[in-house]
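Propose amino acids for all 356 sites.
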């Protein structure tokens, strides 16, 4: 059935089981590729195959022209875990200066509402797609993120560093989505028709640069290992049988390896087997109790005054007056930081090139 987000308010025992299926290919027919992806077709097939009494939520992360994209993670955790707010407050819904698809599609709440996630996407250059990588980078906050941004005045790094050393912080920092299940179905084409008999790209003028015996993965499902292990690190169960890779389209031009070519290449059998294994496992495991600090129903506090104070901090640092005892101040004293530049364009925050 179609998902009803209002069911998130019900006790766990009274609401339907819910699955979120994500298509991670960057392709959409409403952008320059002009053709929809294989992962979108697989997502739709999975939705039709799962038990229809479940709530089945779908999302395609593909790049639609003029639609917001997933903004990159600002790496707040590297300053202080307490600076990384759950759910992410580096961006916000409907912001015109930094539009963000994670917030515009309510992905934090939808990940929270689901008992299980199905992740479907291609291998791009020995790795997950850029949109999946962006999404999972932004999910660092589910692993220990700060659920009370008022304690750090929205985004004050000095207050976050102080909070990280208090007993209160150890009570607040937790895996906010722990207990859920994630399944991964990734696929590739083995280089299509680009490789010669030796396994090297045909176009290479310096074949000695590429040794096919030293390619990074013997098992290509390992291309998605960073996402799988991030889930496991964060308390999301990824059973080994639900992490699969299928290869098809070998030796074919890319134009002959589209969604409509999947039936003739025998893709349905391994994909349906994965879907059935996913459904069996998550049904047996059952519904997941929500965490104490939910992304679903979250309303970000107002932070205009906090932003004003952070803007004053920013202005002072531009003239070489970082907060006393702060990390930027110590970096300036040690000659590590050359960023106290009043002439930076305030609206852009940075010159065109650092070297200038």
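Proposal:
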């Amino acid at each position: 059935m179609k998902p009803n987000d209002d069911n998130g308010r019900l006790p766990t025992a009274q609401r339907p089981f819910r699955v979120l299926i994500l298509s991670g290919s960057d392709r959409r027919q409403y952008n320059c590729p002009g053709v929809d992806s294989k992962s979108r077709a697989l997502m739709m097939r999975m939705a039709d195959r799962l038990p229809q009494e479940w709530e089945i939520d779908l999302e395609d992360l593909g790049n639609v022209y003029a639609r917001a994209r997933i903004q990159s993670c600002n790496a707040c955790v590297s300053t202080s875990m307490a600076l990384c707010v759950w759910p992410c407050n580096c961006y916000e819904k409907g912001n015109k200066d930094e539009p963000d698809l994670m917030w515009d599609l309510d992905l934090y709440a939808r990940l929270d509402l689901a008992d299980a996630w199905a992740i479907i996407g291609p291998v791009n250059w020995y790795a997950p797609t850029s949109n999946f990588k962006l999404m999972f980078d932004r999910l660092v906050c589910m692993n220990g993120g700060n659920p009370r941004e008022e304690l750090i005045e929205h985004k004050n790094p000095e207050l976050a560093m102080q909070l990280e050393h208090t007993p209160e912080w150890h009570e607040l920092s937790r895996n906010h989505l722990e207990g859920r299940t994630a399944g991964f179905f990734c696929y590739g084409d083995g280089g299509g028709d680009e490789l010669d008999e030796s396994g090297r790209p045909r176009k290479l003028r310096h074949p000695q640069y590429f040794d096919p015996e030293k390619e990074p993965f013997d098992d290509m499902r390992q291309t998605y290992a960073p996402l799988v292990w991030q889930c496991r690190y964060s308390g999301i169960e990824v059973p080994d049988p639900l992490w699969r890779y299928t290869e098809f389209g070998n030796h074919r031009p890319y134009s002959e390896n589209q969604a409509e070519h999947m039936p003739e290449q025998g893709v349905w059998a391994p994909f349906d087997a994965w879907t059935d294994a996913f459904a069996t496992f998550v049904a047996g495991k059952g519904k997941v109790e929500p965490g104490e600090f939910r992304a679903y129903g979250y309303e970000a506090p107002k932070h205009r005054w906090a932003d004003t104070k952070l803007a004053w901090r920013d202005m002072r640092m531009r003239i070489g007056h970082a907060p006393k005892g702060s990390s930027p101040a110590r970096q300036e004293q040690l000659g590590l930081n050359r960023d106290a530049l009043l002439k930076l364009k305030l609206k852009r925050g940075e010159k065109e090139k650092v070297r200038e």
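The two ends are 56 Å apart (CA to CA). Residues 268-285 form the longest helix (18 residues).
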